[in-house]
Amino acid sequence: HxxxxxxxxxxxxxxxxxxxxxxxxRTWASMLRTxxxxxxxxxxxxxxxxxxxxxxxxxxxxxxxxxxxxxxxHERVDVSSMIADLLGRQRAAIRERRLVVLEELxxxxxxxxxxxxxLRFAFGFLLDQVLGWIPERGDLYxxxxxxxxxxxxxxxxxxxxxxxxxADGLAPSxxxxxxxxxxxxxxAHGGRLTVATGVAGDxxxxxxxxxxxxxxx
Length: 217
Prior knowledge:
Layout lengths: L4 H26 L1 H4 L3 H29 L7 E4 H10 L2 H6 L3 E6 L5 E4 L1 H18 L5 E13 L2 E11 L12 H12 L3 E6 L5 E8 L7
Parallel strand pairs: 2-4
Antiparallel strand pairs: 1-3, 4-5, 5-7, 6-7
């Protein structure tokens, strides 16, 4: 529906992520006629167009993956273990950029009701982007916790990310595609995503997913 806030966020993200590299390509193309004989310019032109084209291709690939998603499955997903694994795969980048990552992951009630593959795609994409937004030596706080009455009185699993000092913050006006993609998947699961930006560029994301009951026995 055209008035759906999730669709508006995703549309704005695509316009932002595609529009920026197109402006760069157009700007460099406008200088090509007058500077074509400059070998240094030609090398820079080729490098810039290749980078911007790759960025657009990444957006198209993400949209294709989102468009190919079926209705989410309803199964018990250990979100805490999933996020711990995704962070573990980023350890080299975290060490290289000397980031401080604090994890408080609920191991007693870590289950959401949803589609493991879709949630792994969404959280993996988000964490990959978030770690790039944080400046060197920056901080990231990641937590999961069970909330007994969060989604219209129903139990939820809360996933919280807080990052300090991101260059532009993660406010919805920044149209981050990773945030919009996560929002679309969370909504399909019957959940909710909230983004808030505080002082000094501090940003928090709160993802609430329907909680799954603990395993019996």
